[in-house]
Amino acid sequence: MTVYMTKVWGFSVPCGPLQFSTKGWRDGAREVLKPGDLVVLVGTKGDQTDLEFKGRALGIMAPTTEVVSTLDFDLDKRAVDFDSEGNYRWPFGLINRQAWEFLEPPLFEEISSRQFGMDSASGIVPLLEEEARQIENFPKREVELLAPIRTIARIEGEESARRKAAPPPTTKRTGVMHFRRAPAYTYLMKIESASKSAFKVGWAFDYKMRERSFNLSSLPQLGGLRYRTSLYHLWSTARAAYKMEQTILKQFDTRRHQSNREVLYGVEHEVLQSAWIAYLQSNRR
């Protein structure tokens, strides 16, 4: 087993794939990695890394050689993570088998006095045996891996992806946190038979069931309103689905109906569709 290190701007949980800025750096790592190898993530000392994480060993990944696009993961992204043209800086990745975070991230300079160059920022660099031994002795805990939900959705369908990516409930996880991390949809439903063009914007774990529920109450068979889904998008977490819902609603704040603030009134579908597509494109960048 070989223990490598790479420099990063942060480490988040659930943990995504091992990321690289170019296909070349990813393929270079893929050529040397063997089953059982580990990669230690060390925070850089630059402004992009939070002060409390600068120069510290933040976590460990056990990567595979399975290639993946990091854009298929719902990663926490900051403005600094995009270049001047709006492109995500690390679009190339390798799937992880496992990952751990250090309970008290140690200063890496106390583990190694070596100077690491650009290779450690763009790729992976092997540690010496003594350095690897020290790393393994620090207390750590295994963390949840972020599911590549968009990849699963393309291959097996959205319903299968939603079920598979849902984190299993445990006695330690509260109900609220479990739901926030479960896959969910943002939806746009046209409200038919309204006096003006009207749409319901919301999020749900199952938008089809939500639509049925609305129609059971509105009784379109007796002349009431009918809800019909026109747009929907599956997200890796309910938190992301809620964020899109709120962004769309705030964008059309003056069009929100007084009796239900999640209903947009007097807005054409084409306008909402443009805003919907723009949000998804911005999020992918």
Structural class by SSE content: alpha+beta
Query: How large, in whole angstroms, is the Cα Rg?
Result: 23 Å
CA-based shape: elongated
How many beta-strand runs? Answer: 12
Strand-and-helix sequence, N→C? EEHEEEHEHEHHHEEHEHEEH
Total helical segments? 9
Reported for the largest beta sheet, the result is: 7 strands, mixed
Q: Please tell me the overall pLDDT.
A: 85
- How far apart the termini lie comes to 36 Å
Strand content: 25-35%
Overall helicity: 25-40%
Low-confidence stretches: 167-179
Describe how the helices and strands are arranged.
Blueprint: E1 3-8, E2 18-20, H1 23-32, E3 38-43, E4 57-69, E5 92-102, H2 118-122, E6 125-126, H3 129-137, E7 140-142, H4 149-156, H5 158-165, H6 175-181, E8 184-192, E9 198-204, H7 207-218, E10 226-235, H8 238-251, E11 256-257, E12 260-265, H9 269-284
Helix pairs in contact: 4-5, 8-9
Considering the chains and any ligands shown, give keywords for the structure:
single chain; 285 residues; alpha+beta; 7-stranded mixed beta sheet; 5-stranded antiparallel beta sheet
Could you walk me through the main structural features you see in this protein, from its secondary elements to its overall organization?
- By secondary structure, this protein is α+β, with helices and mostly antiparallel strands.
- The protein has helices at 23-32, 118-122, 129-137, 149-156, 158-165, 175-181, 207-218, 238-251, 269-284, and strands at 3-8, 18-20, 38-43, 57-69, 92-102, 125-126, 140-142, 184-192, 198-204, 226-235, 256-257, 260-265.
- The strands form two sheets. Strands 1, 2, 3, 4, 5, 6 and 7 form a seven-stranded mixed beta sheet that branches. A five-stranded antiparallel beta sheet has the order 10-8-9-12-11, sandwiched between helices.
- β11 (256-257) and β12 (260-265) form a beta hairpin.
- α4 (149-156) crosses α5 and α8 (238-251) crosses α9 (269-284).
- It starts with a strand and ends with a helix.
